[in-house]
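Co-fold these.
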Amino acid sequence: MTPELLSRPLLVARGLTKTYVQGHWPRRRHHKALDGVNLILRSGRTLALVGASGSGKTTLAMCLAALERPDSGEIWLGDLDLASARKGKLLRARTQVQILFQDSSGTLSPLLSAAEIVEEPLRVQCTVPKQQRDHAVTDLLRQVGLTPELKTRRASQLSGGQRQRLAIARALALNPRLIILDEPFTGLDLSARGQIINLLIELQASKALSYLYVSHDLDVVSHFADEVAVMHNGRIVEWGQTDNVIANPIHSSTKVLLDASTALSGRRPSPRGEPACVTC
Amino acid sequence: MMQLHSHSTGRDKATAAVVAPIPALSVAALTISASAPNEAEKTVLHDVAFSVAAGEVLGVLGESGAGKSTLALSLLRLLPQGFEVRSGTIHLNGTSLLDLGDEELRSIRGNEVSLIYQDSSALNPVLRVDHQVAEVIHAHSNWSNARCLQEARATLELVGLGDDRIFSSYPHQLSGGQKQRVAIAQALACGPNLLIADEPTASLDATTALEILDLIERMRDQFHSSVLLISHQPEVLAYLSGRVVVMYAGRIIEEGWIQEVFDSPAHPYTRELLRCRTPFQDKQGPIGSKPRWPFIPGTANDFTAGCPFENRCLNRMELCAISMPPVTAIGQSHHVRCFEYAEEVS
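Predicted complex below.
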């Protein structure tokens, strides 16, 4: 595929806002989780969404996955606006956007076998005839590196890395174009993390998948993502090529994140000038 | 066995370093087995021995399933059903923890030994934060409720949560970092001799993780407690601990000063694990424009008579599959369990 084709916009979000109401009168408070977010996701590329906890990363991910409706704004996936689409149309759009959650032990059903977990989306969306489903499931498991012997196991009987592979197989079942990865590596040890990263990169290369990678692990972000968007208080405050943003952070919150990450890595944080804020 | 060493601790912190003649915690030849219905009995900890001096932070590194959490729980005698201590001793300031009765144990848990869990789901969802901390104090003193509450609030202030609104909050109203602080306040309420932190920063972002690690260190200085810091992230251990033990399939396979172990890892497993921190910089067949990440193929061999890492090891010898390598000293306080070094010595 040519680079031009790869970098075509897949999903465009404009002016997204979302406010959560906390507590009851008279102590009710309005929390702006998203405050006018604009975003473009390109085919076959990875955009990392970083920011401190509470900056709105997960809310944005849930809106793009059509699991939450924004209060206002548009999310264009092809010619469908996910923010205003009706249920029936959303159901079909959901085949194109899948989400991989942080803790797969908590999101995979404890009552189903591995094969049933992967088969469920095929059954709900009726994309594969009943007779071929078993074959499709074996094929999906093979794609993520799980052997057919594991088909009868339950999620709780798999290791952390295997569970994450199973969650990836389930996400791939409907041939999505975009997978939202919400902290997919927390809780995995270093070796398992390396394997899952390689798997995701290989799948991206072979299927021209787009990833929205929500994370606070800047070490992985710097090698895994093509672009980085930094969120702060419900806004995207910095956005650019990964190398550029990490080498020359402009917004103060990006610098704070980078400093914390380098301090934790045992390296001395490099002295940086006074925070110069561009948008706030 | 791993030698007992009592040294100063901390990263270049001469002022905070303390030399203690007697280790606060010493574990010797600890072997724990687990049995589940319809499954063969499995040894989850083999012959584990280490010690922690007062005021020292000892890091425990290992992949999931290596026995890190079993070790933490065994120190509090909180092992789940089916787990049994086969042999070994655990001494805390001269008291043998394995010989204590239920009543004595209860007075030690949360008082002399306390545990910070991985996630803050250990907090009671229907108790306000200050009452939650007061509960711990109440269990170990005969003070009045009001006095306990007062002490609890003072402890919360110590961990940076000195706010009336937070005192009266429920856990679900707090952020992840705040909940972890409450858990730390709870653990520190009685000034424990030994603090066990089991993946205290696993679910936190880097900024919050740093704050929590700094807090644990400050508390260590203040209470002069020993800390057992368990993590699968080398950078978390490097930030806080002086010495580190590396666990693999229930065994300690390497032990030493963290700088030494991380700069020149001796055991093939430690070498491979540390290599997984960053992607290959060149060659190795990148995927498209992105570098491939290193990983260790295969899984631990729990049922072998030889070295459990033998099946994944790049330098394996025939001997490795047959017998367990002995612990060999390769530096003043650097020990490794691998035949590669045993030969050199003999």
